[in-house]
Amino acid sequence: MRRQSILTRHLASAALVAVLAAGVGGCQTMSDVTGSIASRSDPMPDDPRRNLEVYGERYRKNPKDVDAAIAYGQALRMTGQRSQACAVLEQATLATPGSKPLLAAYGRALADNGNSQAAFDVLSRAHSPDNPDWRILSVQGTTLDKLNRHEEARRYYASALRLAPDEPSVLSNLGLSYMLTKELPKAEETLRQAYASARADTRIRQNLALVVGLQGRFAEAETIVKADLPADEAAANVAYLRDMLNRKDGPRTASRAAPVVAKDD
Q1: Burial environment of residue 96 by CB neighbours within 10 A (0 to 12, 13 to 18, 19 or more)
Q2: Which residue intervals correspond to the TPR repeats (predicted)?
Q3: pTM for the complete prediction?
Q4: CB 144 within 8 A of CB 152
């Protein structure tokens, strides 16, 4: 049980969520677990449960408090209450129409909850052509990938990269987009570019390990997946990766991996 708990926590935080039941084109549940594309004026405490109390109370006292609504919505997301996050942020956008940070948070919550088309539409209102936000463009790309509109998704990633050249979170999402269409060498090349950045984090390393493993180079994938983890957690990650790649339909059918969303500045 402990091993399963360690595995679940660290694979989720690393954005290595690969399910073998559907085809590569069947991306259904891409979702990040680490951050928000909307900025806040005050940082959130580290304890999501505490955040629910603090920001939930603030929001209930003043539903027009944009920062409280965004932080409360993120706390709900981080504790797995995705539908509730959507409901809270939808009401907040009605109370404060026109708030682009709030629209960004609502769109992110919709994307997490699997409402891809609605998320794309809301995120389109969260920035403007004369003032584009590369973070939002990247998330819009992930929603298009979920809708199997991969070429369109890559145009959004390209736009994001023009605004934020070599941004590792965008490159990682682009690499996963290539993975979804079975263009594994191109996926690896893009993820290695992301991995080379000084700002690359564990999630990007795990995405690279997944794509390397899908090409049959398990020893190399194992080396990548174990990087910077304590021994027991590294072993759990490797065991999961080995099980995934040793299944009957193996590398051909890894269907889903979660994108990386840049943390707030």
Answers
A1: middle
A2: 134-167
A3: 0.78
A4: yes
